[in-house]
């Protein structure tokens, strides 16, 4: 699959006019209990602009979810993936066998076929938000570090809210 970290030109996103547009690999954007009161709220924020493929978003969600699930149990936290992959990524297939150079050279600006979906992210926009019952910056940094290793962009961890046990909520 080609690198989908940069967007060149207008986004190709009108799926009703695109035959063969894939469905997103990421199916659940929220995990856990949203209504509970959490004392720690953290975000994984993009440090640079680019595109995040739906496969990368799903891999980041799974890895972050696994770290929180091991520590807090199933459903005792809230995890949310914020960007939605709506941009259709096209790929021009290139043959890589002997004699394929004369077959591949005839289409210099080929349109390509839809292969994946991607979400456009700007610097400073959150990618994943986690709310946990007790503030634990070390756990969140470790979970978000593994999640950001699945993403093609540089990311940083931001603390939105941290309350100790004695502070009013």
Task: Outline the structure in words.
The chain has 169 residues and is an alpha+beta fold. The protein has a domain at 29-88 and 112-162: Ribosomal protein L16/L10 (Aldehyde Oxidoreductase, domain 3, Alpha-Beta Complex). The chain contains 3 helices and 8 strands. The protein is elongated.
Concise description?
With 169 residues, this protein is an alpha+beta fold.
Task: Please give a handful of descriptors for the protein shown.
alpha+beta, 169 residues, 8 strands, Aldehyde Oxidoreductase, domain 3
| Count of runs of 4 or more consecutive helical residues | 3
Query: What strand line-up does the widest sheet have?
Result: 1-4-7-2-8
Q: Low-confidence runs (pLDDT<50, min 5 residues)? A: none
Mean pLDDT across every amino acid position:
85
Largest sheet: 5 strands, antiparallel
Please provide the ordered H/E string of secondary-structure elements: EEEHEEHEEHE
Compute the gyration radius: what is it? 19 Å
* CATH topology tier name of the domain at 29-88 and 112-162: Aldehyde Oxidoreductase, domain 3
The CATH H-level homologous superfamily of the domain at 29-88 and 112-162:
Ribosomal protein L16/L10
CATH class of the domain at 29-88 and 112-162 reads Alpha Beta
Structural class: alpha+beta
Span from first to last CA? 46 Å
> Proportion of β residues?
25-35%
Overall geometry: elongated
Fraction of helical residues? 10-25%
CATH architecture of the domain at 29-88 and 112-162: Alpha-Beta Complex
The tally of strands reads 8
């Amino acid at each position: 699959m080609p690198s989908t970290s940069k967007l060149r030109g207008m986004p190709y996103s009108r799926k009703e006019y695109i035959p063969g547009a894939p469905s997103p690999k990421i199916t659940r954007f929220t995990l856990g209990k949203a209504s509970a009161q959490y004392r720690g709220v953290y975000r994984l924020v993009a440090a640079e602009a680019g595109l995040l493929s739906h496969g990368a978003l799903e891999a980041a969600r799974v890895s972050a979810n696994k770290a929180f699930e091991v520590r807090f149990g199933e459903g005792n936290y809230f995890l949310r993936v914020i960007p939605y992959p709506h941009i259709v990524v096209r790929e021009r297939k290139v043959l890589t066998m002997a004699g394929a150079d004369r077959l591949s050279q005839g289409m210099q600006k080929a349109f390509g076929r839809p292969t994946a979906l991607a979400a456009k992210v700007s610097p400073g926009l959150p990618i994943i938000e986690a709310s946990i019952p007790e503030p634990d910056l070390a756990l969140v940094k470790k979970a978000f570090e593994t999640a950001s290793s699945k993403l093609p962009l540089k990311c940083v961890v931001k603390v939105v809210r941290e309350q100790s046990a004695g502070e009013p909520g």
